[in-house]
Write a structure and sequence with these properties.
heterodimer, A: 569 residues, alpha/beta, Rossmann fold, 2 domains, six-stranded mixed β-sheet, 21 strands, B: MetI-like fold, two-stranded antiparallel ribbon, 12 helices, flat
Amino acid sequence: MTEVAINRAGSASGPATAPVPATGVAPLVAVENLRVSFPASGVEAVRGVSLSIAPGECVALVGESGSGKSVTARALIGLAGPGARVRASAFRVGGGDALTFGPREWRRLRGRFAGLVLQDALVSLDPLRTVGAEITEVLAEHDVVPRPARPERVRALLEAVGVRDPEVRARQHPHQLSGGLRQRALIASAIAAEPELLIADEPTTALDVTVQAQILRLLADRKAAGTALLMISHDLAVVAAVADRVLVMRDGVVVEDGPAREVLTAPRHDYTRALLAAVPSASPRRSASPVPSASPVPSASPVPRRPGRSQKADPHGADPRGAVLAATGLSVAYGSRTAVDDVSFRLHAGETLGVVGESGSGKTTLARLALGLLAPDAGEVTLRGGPWSGLPERRRRPLRPAVQVIAQNPLDSFDPRHTVGRLVADPLSALPRPRRRERAIELLGRVGLPPELLGRRPRELSGGQRQRVAIARALASRPEVLICDEPVSALDVSIQAQVLDLLAEIQAEDGTALLFISHDLGVVRHLSDRVLVMKDGRVVEEGDAHEVFLRPRHPYTRELLAAVPRLPE
Amino acid sequence: MTAAPPAPRPPISRPPRPHPPWSRPSWPRPPAWLGAPLRRLVSAAAVLWAAATTAYAALLLAPGDTVDLLVGDGADTPEIRAQIVAEWGLDRPEAVRYLSYLGRLLHGDLGRSYQLQQDVGEVLAGQVGPTARLTLAAAAVGVALAFALAVATAGRSAWPRRIVSAAELVAVSVPQFVIGIVLLFVFSFSLGWFPVSGAADPQALVLPALALGLPVAGVLGQVLREGLERALEQPFVVTARSRGLGERAVVARHALRHALLPAVTLTGWFTGVLLGGAVITEALFGRPGLGRVAMQAVSAKDMPVVMAVVILSAAVYVTISVLLDLAYRIIDPRLRSA
């Protein structure tokens, strides 16, 4: 029994476990006209979705946040959420009529018939329990193997998902494992009872690109071993490699449904086309938003590449050598760990320097050094040729308006109780009060937001609006350098594209220098003139963005580029 | 117990950030396996020393002659005065006096009550039992009630949750002595189920334990429910449910442990409530115990006993908070060094 299961989990499966053809077999899940509403809040999250999954098939649900894709998937195992009202004209799951299921029937199906893998295993596995305990829980709940055999089965499962030293790992807690390892452990717990269907809800979204590639391979292996997959993702490129069929969702409705290749290469619906066009990696260095952005400033003209940028007249008088912000030999260590190791860069007016690297590569530390929030152990940062990192804070403060930051999640960097007006006007304390309001409206206009938003609070804004407010606030002090730390990572692709366009516009108008930090190579490629590739605190490759992405020299850069999921051409 | 000891704050209540870029350690840390517990013990010792010194300073700084203060309202004869001068070293330099006081404390010698003509240690030893019984019973009542109510009502918006949380609010806001009087009135005077006073039989423990434990149950119940509800919204609960776990298993195996963390933080606070409340509760129910001894000592100005009670409370408090620190580490693996 154990042996069979392990073979099944491995990638080298025999003919007996080959994928079942999708036709002529009763589907695992068949739902027609699924509607999920939350009467308490009056939200109708899913409005008439029909979906079927055949044994061994991989179906992908793609859409942006709020499209209803997660709720749809969770409704299939009766976990639509507290207070959810689920209706359907037909709803069959695992051979039973789900419309008649009570809690007991649902519980029998969960884990056994369908396993669920969520986004971030750091919080999707119980952080207070060991990985082994979490996997054992499934084995015990469905009595998959008798108690004495469970530790051995846990070991076998971890091994099957590619975890080395499974005995050691089973005794560890999620926070002791790397992102990739704990995602593997989460998958091991989802497949422990050998379900026929694996539901993976954004299974790679929290992961670095190379780790993402590994997890996608693992999911493909599961599919090859005969498990049906329901993949939920906001990223079309991620599902491209695995999916047989793609359903594109928007506002609770499936707008397009077809074989993966067709949907990805010859989309019929405008929204699918817009989504595909918005994937930044598909469109190096041009306007990314397929629809004109909401900004009043015309964005139709893509930002042209200007070779002689540094010659551009600088209103603040950049230093003769042209670099607004320059770093030489920066090093910082936290305790015994070196976060940034001998990093140098020069950032000219009107230029974008992209910094790419995976988590832990020192990108954010570099941003903090550039902002003068962290003193380097060695090396120096200069602003307009004058001292910056070496200054005492009291003397740095008058210069701070020149260097502003845009953070990943404005919800964390805004005071949630302040209104948009107050947030934007915060750096304008030098202006008289009535002028402040005027200027705030002006700034909102620049980032394409109507003045009505002045009285709103961050929570009442959409993700894209929040990031625009963050940009408006950064622009308030007329900075020469904008440091963007993962500014679009928390946004949907279409919104991402608009925000990137906005940044490019602002740069074209003001000649602002951008230090643009991201783990997303597509995004960096889209915006940068030059790039630094960081690994373990060091710069492994540096150069013209076009060159680096086209002809990467360092093996690590090549590895990163190879790991980026691609849409079929 | 009347004078609250300087409360050592339970220090850690959030997961540690291994390398916070904004607060770099400015001194080399001791080895990880030794570091936290050792630092904790050093700070515990410092708190005890501070409590002892505060008590000593109160004695020195109080207006009037130190010998008069130590005698209090007790028999004041030349022999006793001479004995005090000798025992407290009042004829010697101040530094020596202070050090010998600390030295005596280190040896467990709490001094002598000249009013009761008894060693303070003996006075307290006879009273620790009843107080320990009362506070432990009250803690048990509070914790058990809080758990039962929180688990039964967490995450439900129905009316039982509203009623329970209203009851908790009442229990928190009404002073202990009022609760005690109401309990006495209903269960002793009217119904006659429990004795009015004394500590002779176990039944006499019921009402005082309730009076002391209900406010604890009120606060702890609210914190636990809040923690449970927050935990039940976490993704790992969705994962647990997706494995086929029932509601009870989800709460018992996953959510409850997360809810415990903030509740454990409160344990330090309710130790203080229980120790302080014991004074009033013992007086109200006519029970023997440290609280009553402290009351009598204060009103009779029996300074050596008051000082000893202050130091003893500090010791209990410090011990509990060291134990809490250990409990955090057991409950939350993220707090153990990786």
